Amino acid sequence: MDLNWLKPLLGRPAPFTTVYLDATPAEAAGSSEASDRWKAVRRELEHQGAPAAVLDEIGDRAARPARVAGSHGRVLIADAEGVRVDRVLAEPPAQALAVCGPAPALLPAARAADESTRYLLVEVDRLGADLTWSEGWGLGAAPMESVEGGHDVLHKTNDGGTSQRRLATRAEDSWERNAQVVAAELDRVVERRHPELVLLTGDVRAVALVQDAVGQRVREMLVEVPGGSRADGIKQDVFAARVSQALLDHRKRRRELVLGLFRTQQGRGGSAVTELGDVVEVLRRGQVRELVLEESVAGASSPLGERELWVGPEPLQVALTKADLEAMGVEEGARTLRADIALVRAALGQDAGLTFAEDGAVDLVDGVGALLRWSDGSTPRESVLSQSADRSRLRNGI
C-alpha cells in the first residue's frame, strides 16, 4: 500500500490535530446527530489545546458532505497551519478519535488507504468511451472525459449481398478504429495518472476490441466488469455492487502479494524481519520496502500502541532507547512517540509501503515485520522454529 499521499505531513509544524469520526450524513443518522458528533469532538480537541483556526477548518470540511451514500467514516489531519489530509473511510469508526499533539496519529489515515483503490472506470461502446476517475478514498468517482472514435459505420447486416458484405466490413473496421482511439487514450491516462486498476465495461464486442488494443501496462491492470454501459437503463445497483466486488478483490490480491512474499522470505537470509527491535534497526537504515503490521495494531488498545520509541527530528531517526538515538548523533529534538506512529513515520520517510495482516496471516513478533529492499551481513536475521508450539525464535548473527 502506497503511503506517499501522507508525505505532506513530514516536516510540517506541530501541533498536529487528528480527527477520526463517523461522517454519516444527517439524513441517514438523524437531523442533529452528525453536528452533535463534531461538537463533542471539537470540545475534546479544545481541551487538548488545538488551534481554533484549525478546528474551524476541520469543522467546515466535516460539515461538507462527501459524495458517499449511507454510513461512512472520515479522517482529517491538520498541522499548525491547516488541514493536510482529508479522506473518507468505507466504514465509520466504532469510536471517534480526537488527538492534538506533537505528531499526527497516522494509523487511521493508513487504514483509510488500505480500504481504498485508485481506479479508472471505462465504459465503452462501438463509437467510443466514457472515462470516470476515482482517487479511491471514498469521495466517489467523478466523470473525467469522453473519447469518441469518429468512425461511425456502426452496424452491419447478414443479408449476404455484395454491398451488405462491404458494409459489414466497413462496420468492423470502424469498431476496430474506434477501439484503437479509446485504447490510445487509456494508455495516455494511465501513464499520467497511475491508477492501480482499470475497470472496463460496456458493449461486449467493444470491450474485447479495446482489450486487444491497449498497451501492456494497461492490460496488466485491466479487469472486466460486466453490466455497465454508456447508455441509460442499466441496473445501477447491480453494477455498483460488481464494481465494489472488483475493488475488494483487488485489495485482497494487493495484500496477499505482500504477505505471501513475507512468508516466503521469512528466515531466509534477512529479506524479511520481525520483532520490534529488528524492525526499528532496518527502518533507521532505510532498508524497508514494506512495513507489515498486524490488523489489531490499528486498534486503540493494541500492545504496540502502548509502547514508545525514541525519535529525532528526521523520520529515520528512530530507536528503542534515548542512548541508542544519541549514538546515532541526535543531540537535539529527541522525544518519545507511540511505537506505531514512529514506525509508520519512519516507513513514510523512506518511501516504504504499509500492509495490514489479519492476525495469524503471517508469523509476527510484537505485531510488526518488514520486507526489505536489500540486506547485508549486519542485517538482523531470524530462524523460525517450525516445531515450536509457541512460535519462538532463534536469532542468528545480529
Short description:
The chain has 11 helices and 18 strands.
Secondary-structure map:
Elements: E1 16-22, H1 26-29, H2 33-47, H3 52-63, E2 73-79, E3 82-89, E4 97-101, H4 106-114, E5 119-124, E6 128-134, E7 142-148, H5 162-193, E8 197-202, H6 204-213, H7 216-221, E9 222-224, H8 236-265, E10 272-274, H9 276-284, E11 288-294, E12 308-311, E13 318-319, H10 322-327, E14 335-338, H11 339-349, E15 353-357, E16 368-372, E17 381-384, E18 393-396
Parallel strand pairs: 5-8, 8-9, 11-15
Antiparallel strand pairs: 1-2, 1-4, 2-3, 5-6, 6-7, 10-16, 11-16, 12-13, 12-14, 17-18
Helix pairs in contact: 2-3, 5-6
Instruction: Tell me the Rg in angstroms.
Output: 25 Å
Number of strands: 18
The fraction of residues in strands falls at 15-25%
- Pick out the low-confidence regions: 153-160, 384-398
Main β-sheet: number of strands, strand sense, barrel status? 5 strands, mixed
Q: Under the CATH scheme, which architecture of the largest domain would be assigned?
A: 2-Layer Sandwich
CATH-wise, what's the superfamily of the largest domain? Answer: eRF1 domain 2
- Give average pLDDT, whole number: 84
Distance between the termini: 29 Å
